[in-house]
Design a protein that fits this description.
The complex is a heterodimer of chains A (548) and B (606). Helix content of chain A is 77%, strand content 1%. Chain A is mainly α. Chain A has a domain of 177 residues. Chain A has a two-stranded antiparallel ribbon with strand order 1-2. In chain A, strand 1 and strand 2 form a beta hairpin. In chain A, helix 15 packs antiparallel against helix 20 and helix 16 packs antiparallel against helix 21. Chain B is mostly helical and 606 residues long. Chain B has a domain of 161 residues. Chain B contains 25 helices and six strands. Chain B has a two-stranded antiparallel sheet. In chain B, strands 3-4 form a two-stranded antiparallel ribbon. In chain B, a hairpin with a 2-residue loop joins strand 5 and strand 6. In chain B, helix 2 runs parallel beside helix 4, helix 3 packs antiparallel against helix 14 and helix 13 packs across helix 17. The relative contact order of chain B is 0.09. Classes of the chains: A mainly alpha (548), B mainly alpha (606). The interface between A and B is large, with 37 and 38 residues.
């Protein structure tokens, strides 16, 4: 093969196949360039960077939506049988399938709401606007890549691409020492985790000779069935665990969560919203990709697939236990630690950690059922996808309200919310809806999400996949729901039962205002998806189709 | 069963009964309703609850409104009536499935009736009037929804919807320790409902409606009569199991000889049926409540404002008993049989413990609260006496008597305990204390009120001729055939009950003079209070003298359920026993052995 044909093939692959499936990301890239350009040219400096970013993410959402609809245009059976319309792009570095399309839609839809929210809440100011939005969009680009990574090197690059702008974002409040401290802490932790992850990836590469996720199961099966000669099984375990460290850091799973409360407390509430929703969604999608990449072959000859699936029993068992135990610890620790918090952002940080635990439970169930009950695995991934969509509204709503209240009360301490119901009943009701949904009480969407996670665990139990662990997770998940009641309700208690603090200077939060409309727009879906969740579930089912 | 049921004829009545309060609550919470118009808010709420009460009467006593039409309750028909069925979430087969039978309908009417009285009793509430009434109406929607839901998911949703309004109603409008009481109530109930959710999911994923016969599929409303042929064909042709949340279908599956619930073992070699029964039972008995999970109740009752105490005692406690009767026993009969001792045992323990605790109280309201624990113990005992076997003969009439008695006790307690809490509230509104030691001589100052109050307390005591008597005596009699010890204890508890109630009457209403603070406030009963108290006393007398008014609703459905379960015991459970005897696993003279259906499947497979 000469250089000429190689280049032609590369060109055809890139322009003909890959780029058309990459439109949302391309739009974000273009937006970033425009934002930077506006800052350079004196004439364009007057352009409002927020509006520019808003326009860009609207286009990205439009493309992501069109792509997702294109998937839905396929008959359901076709999507299910083709593993979510799986298609490798950019020479196998990325994969385009229904999970990619779903996650991109979530991320870009989130960005639209997020840019709107930041315009209303006033952080960033006009001066910082361009920097802020460039960082946000850049990080989101990394997150889109995380959701579609098909190669361990790409996994590392995507994680870094998503992380590095976040470090800068958490230091955005330049005058505040807490903010700088948070940024430093985040960066140091992130660098450590990235190093460990890279080391893990290189160990895996050394033993298996490939980093391509679809090629991994075959190689892994070969090594494992050879009896793990020369301690290669040990090295693989170690590599896998180190890779997990990197993922757990992005997921803020215990014990790699230490950055999370400090960053959330130090950074602006808006940054917290970004990290808790977008970053979490991408990290969970990546976890699904990597876990399935190691545990299940993605298509190929039927007999070799069956042989590989059988050979990987132990690998799946290992993955399920690692994810499951991390989930159990994360969930419990997050909920227990949230109990003692007095700062609202810190409380939400621990709540984020706890919810990462619930999400990982469903991922564990998906991997557990991947081989023996593919339908159950699909439902489990569907549960994850549904959870992410509802989590978007719940947490963006919670952080949005915190940001609005900060502008009002000049405080993010829970105690400052005392008796808020007397002056601003509307926002208290909105906060109540969001927090009760985070507890997981019907008829709100948080309940449906939790119901789906628990039902995937019970499904795994009833088909007999990893039954002891799934039972344990079910019990822990149930108990955690009860524990979480305390701290969420405490916030509501302060807002409603407690008297107004004596030095309250704030005027009431106007319900009929643009901010009020924004909060309403975030809270209404929390209720609507709790009652009429058929449509969202059908969309999430498409994402779940990758597990077949 | 009556296959020619008209589905969805009762869509509007049932939907309005459940959602009209929520709809009005949503309207009241809009900013266009000015906060200052407190009187208007009160009247709107009272009017809404009255309309809902009338709607439930339209459903229950159609004779009052002209000829019986479709969608109204036909007396004497034991089956589920006024069934409403619409798909909700297709992916999980969740339906908007409502219906009433002789077990749920009286409770629905009790709820609408007590809600109306409680709305009237809410007039003295002067803090955040609008918010109070919004939450109150939401609470009513939750309670009514639980009683009419026939889809387990929908049932759970309504079950949880009640929690938050109740939390705020206790926590904002309650007494001095309201925050503690509110969170305690929430925590206990949420723990129970999480366990319930786990059980629901276990049952769902093990169920398969494909195991039911065509007739059963129609009778349990899994398929609509109109499109039955196509739907049944679809179920039969589905590969794998078709799961369901339909409570009637789950019950039919649970009573199959090859019930998947009994055949599946989950943990510690114990069948899914037993686990599900236990988890559901814990969820329900927390609500009932029984000792030792009753401790939320005295706190919640004492701290809650009077109308909320009326609702708590009158309706919320009944949800637990209703759940056990509607869900635990029919779906998990094997576990119900082997764990009957547990249900009866906790019932009797609550009975005795509640009575002794009531004797020891000095707070009037706390005493009434513990009397609820004691009285709900009778309900548990009545539900639990699984005495299908009398020697070698199958006799389910004692058992039916117990369950009928338990149902009657629930309804009677709904009237008498709501009345008692209201009577305590009337006094508290005047003198602002509830210390039993500081009362006395109320009869002289408030003669009409004292007359009503003493009648209500006698009803609670179980005096023959008043409503409390019927349920207690039926339960006690029926338990004789199950366990004589329990019967004797429950009969003796009546003495304790008499002791604490008579002693309270003596200390509060009789005596020479009032010794507490605010003596000048002891003004005669107002006409509003009279309008709330009189219907309660009236009903207490009517149900005591003519229990048939309630039994004509309750008995057909209860008897049908008990008879079905007794047949199940004979055919399925003892069928297994005979086989085990034949194979030498148990001795023939052992009393009904505690074996699960898993054993049956095991034997059959051999």
């Amino acid at each position: 093969m000469n250089i000429g044909t190689l280049l032609t093939e590369l060109f055809n692959d890139t322009v003909g196949v890959s780029l058309p499936l990459f439109r949302p990301e391309l739009t974000i890239v273009v937006t970033i360039v425009l934002l930077l350009l506006c800052r350079m040219l004196p004439l364009l400096r007057r352009v409002d960077s927020g509006l520019l970013a808003l326009g860009g993410v609207c286009f990205a959402t439009w493309y992501a939506y069109a792509d997702f609809l294109g998937l839905g245009g396929l008959p359901g059976d076709a999507i299910l049988s083709s593993a979510g319309g799986r298609q490798e792009i950019f020479g196998g570095l990325l994969v385009y399938d229904s999970l990619t399309a779903y996650l991109r839609l979530i991320l870009s839809g989130f960005l639209v709401l997020y840019v709107l929210l930041t315009k209303l809440s006033g952080i960033p100011d006009r001066e910082d606007g361009a920097d802020f939005y460039v960082l946000v969009l850049g990080s989101s680009l990394g997150m889109c890549l995380m959701a579609s990574a098909n190669h361990l090197l790409m996994v590392f690059m995507a994680v870094e691409m998503a992380s590095v702008p976040s470090y800068a974002l958490s230091g955005m409040l330049k005058g505040r020492p807490a903010s700088s401290e948070a940024a430093l802490k985040y960066a140091v932790y992130g660098a450590g985790a990235a190093g460990v992850m890279l080391y893990g990836i290189s160990l895996i590469a050394g033993v298996l000779g490939t980093l391509q996720l679809p090629a991994l199961p075959g190689e892994l099966a070969r090594v494992l069935s050879a009896g793990g000669t020369g301690g290669s099984a040990m090295v693989l375990c170690l590599g896998g665990l180190m890779l997990t460290v990197g993922l757990a850091f992005k997921l803020s799973a215990v014990p790699f969560h230490f950055w999370c409360p400090d960053v959330f407390e130090g950074a602006a509430a808006e940054v917290g919203a970004f990290l808790s929703v977008a970053s979490k969604a991408a990290a969970v999608a990546l976890l699904v990709r990597v876990a399935f990449g190691f545990g299940m072959p993605a298509g190929g000859n039927e007999s070799t697939v069956a042989a590989t699936v059988t050979a990987l029993v132990d690998a799946r068992h290992f993955i399920v236990y690692v994810i499951g135990l991390l989930a159990a610890v994360t969930c419990t620790f997050g909920n227990l630690a949230a109990y003692g918090q007095s700062n609202m952002k810190r409380l939400l940080a621990y709540s984020t950690i706890a919810h990462a635990g619930y999400l990982m439970m469903a991922v564990a169930a998906a991997v557990a059922m991947a081989a023996d009950a593919p339908a159950g695995a699909r439902d489990a991934i569907t549960a994850v996808a549904f959870y992410l969509a509802t989590y978007l509204f719940m947490n963006l709503g919670a952080f949005g309200i915190v940001a609005m209240l900060r502008n009002q009360l000049r405080s993010e301490e829970i105690a400052a919310y005392g008796g808020l119901i007397r002056t601003s009943p509307g926002i208290v009701v909105a906060m109540a809806v969001v927090l009760v949904s985070l507890i997981g009480l019907p008829p709100l969407s948080g309940f449906v999400a939790k119901f789906l996670v628990f039902s995937s665990l019970v499904d795994a139990i009833s088909v007999g996949c990893e039954r002891p662990l799934m039972l344990l997770l079910l019990v822990i998940g149930g108990l955690n729901t009860v524990i979480s009641l305390f701290y969420y309700l405490r916030v509501l208690k302060v807002m409603t039962f407690d008297p107004l603090p004596g030095d309250r200077v704030a005027e009431p939060f106007p319900l009929v205002s643009i901010s009020g409309a924004m909060v309403t727009g975030l809270v209404v879906p929390v209720v609507v998806f709790g009652i009429f969740w058929s449509g969202l579930y059908a969309a999430a089912q498409l994402a779940g189709a990758i597990a077949s | 069963m009556n296959a020619a049921v008209v589905e969805n004829a009762a869509f509007w009545p049932l939907t309005l009964i459940v959602f009209l309060p929520a709809f009005v609550a949503a309207f009241l919470s809009l900013p266009i309703v000015p906060k200052a118009r407190e009187e208007a808010v009160r009247w709107i709420t009272l009017g809404t609850t009255a309309v809902v009460f009338l709607l439930s009467l339209w459903l229950a006593v159609p004779q009052l409104f002209g000829p019986v039409g479709p969608g109204q309750f036909l007396l004497g028909n034991p089956d589920m009536q006024a069934v409403v069925k619409f798909p909700w979430i297709d992916a999980f087969g969740i339906e908007y499935l409502l219906g009433v039978d002789g077990i749920s309908l009286p409770l629905v009417v009790l709820t609408t009736f007590l809600s109306m009285l409680a709305a009237a009793a809410s007039w003295p509430i002067s803090k955040h009037v609008k918010a109070y009434h919004v939450l109150f109406l939401l609470l009513e929607t939750g309670m009514l929804g639980v009683f009419v839901s026939l889809d387990f998911f929908l049932f759970y949703v309504f079950w949880e919807v009640m929690l938050l309004p109740m939390y705020f109603l206790i926590g904002i409008w309650g007494g001095p320790r309201r925050e503690y009481a509110a969170i305690k109530f929430f925590l206990y109930t949420l723990l129970g409902s999480v366990l319930m959710l786990i059980a629901i999911l276990m049952l769902y994923f093990t169920s398969d409606v494909g195991q039911l016969s065509d007739e059963q599929l129609i009778a349990t409303h899994v398929v609509s009569p109109a499109t039955a042929v196509d739907e049944i064909a679809a179920i039969r042709s589905t590969e794998g199991a078709v799961h369901t949340f339909n409570l009637m279908a789950l019950a039919a599956i649970g009573q199959l000889p090859n019930s998947p619930f009994a055949a599946t073992t989950v943990w510690f070699n114990t069948s899914l049926e037993t686990w599900a029964f236990l988890l559901l039972l814990i969820g329900f008995v927390i609500k009932v409540p029984v000792v030792p999970v009753h401790t939320w109740l005295p706190d919640a009752h004492v701290e809650a404002p009077t109308p909320i105490s009326m609702i708590l005692a009158g309706v919320l406690l009944k949800l637990g008993g209703y759940g056990i009767l509607r869900i635990c026993y029919p779906i998990c009969p094997g576990a119900g049989l082997s764990l009957a001792w547990l249900v009866c045992g906790v019932g009797v323990v609550s009975m005795v413990y509640g009575a002794f605790a009531a004797l020891a109280q000095t707070d009037f309201k706390r005493m009434v609260a513990y009397s609820s624990v004691s009285h709900m113990g009778y309900v548990m005992l009545g539900l639990g006496v699984w005495s299908a076997v009398d020697g070698q003969q199958y006799r389910w009439d004692f058992w039916a008597q117990g369950v009928n008695g338990a149902m009657f006790q629930m309804l009677a307690h709904g009237i008498s305990s709501a009345g008692m809490f209201f009577m305590v509230g009337v006094l508290y509104d005047r003198v602002h204390h509830r210390n039993l030691q500081e009362f006395g001589g109320i009869f002289g100052k408030m003669p009409v009120y004292s007359g009503l109050a003493i009648a209500v307390f006698f009803a609670g005591l179980g005096l023959p001729g008043l409503c409390g008597f019927i349920g207690e005596v039926l339960v006690t009699l029926s338990s004789w055939n199950y366990s004589r010890v329990l019967a004797v204890i429950s009969a003796f508890t009546v003495i304790l009950t008499a002791a604490y109630i008579l002693w309270a009457i003596q200390r509060v209403y009789l005596g020479a003079e009032y010794r507490g603070p605010h003596e000048e406030a002891l003004t005669p009963i107002t006409s509003r209070e009279l309008a709330i108290g009189t219907p309660l006393v009236f009903l207490a007398i009517v149900f005591g003298v003519a229990p048939q008014t309630l039994f004509q609703y309750v008995t057909p459905s209860v008897n049908q359920q008990v008879e079905t379960l007794a047949d199940w015991t004979r055919d399925v459970h003892d069928g297994a026993r005979k086989m085990m005897v034949a194979e030498g696993h148990v001795t023939p003279d052992s009393r009904v052995p505690a074996i699960g259906l898993g054993d049956l499947a095991d034997i059959e497979s051999r």
